[in-house]
Amino acid sequence: MRTMTRTVGALAFAGAATTALTGCGTDAEAEPAGDAAAAATYVDGTYDGPRVENEKGGFQAQVTVEDGAITQVAAIEAGTQDPQSLQINATAIPELAEKVIAAQSADVEAVSGASYTSPGFLESVEGALDQAAG
After folding, report:
1. Do 133 and 42 contact (CB within 8 A), yes or no?
2. Does the pLDDT of residue 101 top 70, yes or no?
């Protein structure tokens, strides 16, 4: 519990610092950083991201865009056939896909316990989205 209290305090401080710095700009009509990501639109289609390899195998994502929005994220390849890899990926890939769709971006938090899957898969998603931004 002690660690959680410190983390919450640090997050509260970081939020206060961000809020304080937001008013320091000279451009009164500048958008907050969060709105820029939400405003991103993509060209409709299905895009295969690059194959990304790490110690736990290869990862490749496929992203579908409809009406300028990410509607589906799927794995073309996800790690090795090792039972532990299969178990982790069975949980992590759907969770990462859900986060990407909700955020409309590959800039999402990693899944806890999926320290190889998360960066590998998200890097491939980012590559697919780079193509979709085309």
Report:
1. yes
2. yes
